[in-house]
Write a structure and sequence with these properties.
Strand content: 15-25%
Structural class: alpha/beta
Number of strands: 9
Shape: globular
Order of helices and strands: EHEHEHEHEEHEHHEEH
Number of helices: 8
Radius of gyration: 17 Å
């Protein structure tokens, strides 16, 4: 899809950060995002955090007009947080004001300093979706135990082979979407949650024939707070991805040829 890319200072870009019990991490993340991209807008979606993250986000928003907050009460999950954020962008910001949407984690695992590389890829390569990738040359993971690394790599391998996706990091949550593409791929209901949500959106973008690119990032394990990974998250991803793959093959759909196949 053609169109001018995002500005280097983040003007025209909205960064969505979902939070659940991230009071220790949120202030530093907000500061780093706004320092890295002074023209950006930032939307925190707090998922009913019992630790007061939502109240803290409101305080931060009162101090800086670039920041706004949505609240979920009670907790509704990661997928719902992003879907509501995307709907908020469409309802509250005309396309001329916000043309690009970033999603990133609140726990510090995604470095705001990597944001310019995502924006540059959209400008120079005409990407509709840019994935911050741990698994392309130059990408890396810091401070993960071996079993977490093995689980992530296995999940990525299974997801991209089952769904025939030409990307290396389909489960990662550090992404830049062209707004028009995001609107199109979320017209159909999105019920997936957790890391499965990330696979779902990447699959929809690829199946729509849009341009997907990956740029290397450094992913660093959180130093404060607790991980939201659970057995339920893994089980949901496994059955949904398997169901999508079976459905796709039964329908006999051809793989779009607008993207390069990743190295084996």
């Amino acid at each position: 899809m053609s169109g001018r890319g995002p500005a280097a200072d983040g003007t025209g870009v909205l960064v969505v950060v979902p939070t659940y019990d991230e009071r220790e991490n949120l202030p530093g993340l907000v500061e780093r995002v706004l320092a890295t991209l002074p023209g950006v807008r930032l939307l925190v979606v707090d998922d009913g955090s019992p630790d007061g993250t939502g109240d803290l986000a409101d305080d931060l928003a009162r101090a800086d007009p670039r920041l706004s907050v949505l609240h979920h009460r009670p907790r509704r999950g990661l997928g719902a947080a992003y879907v509501d954020a995307f709907a908020h962008v469409v309802a509250s910001h005309p396309a001329e004001e916000i043309g690009w949407v970033v999603q990133m984690d609140a726990d510090g695992s995604h470095a705001p300093e990597d944001l310019p590389a995502l924006l540059a890829s959209a400008r120079t390569e005409g990407a509709d979706l840019v994935l911050g990738s741990r698994y392309v040359p130059g990408g890396r993971i810091v401070n993960w135990p071996w079993y977490r690394d093995a689980l992530s790599r296995s999940a990525n391998t299974y997801s991209r082979r089952a769904l025939r996706l030409p990307v290396r990091d389909v489960t990662g949550g550090f992404r830049l979407f062209r707004r028009r593409v995001l609107e199109e791929v979320t017209r159909a209901p999105v019920s997936s949650q957790g890391y499965c949500f990330q696979v779902d959106l990447a699959f929809r973008v690829h199946r729509g024939g849009f341009a997907v690119r990956e740029v290397p990032i450094t992913f660093t394990e959180r130093v404060a707070g607790a991980s939201k990974m659970s057995g339920a998250v893994v089980r949901e991803a496994l059955w949904r991805i398997t169901a999508w793959a079976v459905r796709d093959r039964l329908r006999g759909r051809e793989v779009p040829r607008t993207h390069e196949t990743p190295p084996s």
